[in-house]
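Assess this:
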Amino acid sequence: MSDYKTFETERLFIRPTSLEDAEFILKLLNTPKWIANIGDRKVQNLEDSTLYIKTKITSQLVKLGFSNYTVIRKADGTKLGSCGLYERVGLDVVDIGFAFLPEFEGQGYGTESAARILKAGFETFNQNKISAITTKENIASQKLLEKLGLTFIKIIRIPNDEEDLMYYEIERQKTSNS
């Protein structure tokens, strides 16, 4: 995984999720908020988690150079959550997403890591637009997206999902040099 970009902020290391994160990913994907807001990924044990990392995360990382990142607190090495850029079926624009273990919510880690990944999306991965989707009920996610500068565009549905989702977008800021 060392061939892929890692990032940091004042409090966080943000590195590509790898097989060494299988136990953490198993825990994160089975939190009540993940299941309610993102969906049940049917990851029930370490074997499922390892397969999920290989097929969903590592495969996109190899293909695009970015994917899901594990967010780690610098102070003590604790894995807090994940944040990343995703190629999603049904979306024409790369999507930013984030999720944290319940005990680390409300401490600014989501904003801090998502702001860094958003910046990387434009500056490192050369995206012109970045999107985000969230459920109507996920007010915390909506607030974080708006804080990051994303704008609500419309209600959409993605393939194989019957739920209406709120679609947000942000464009790369034009500078006088571009």
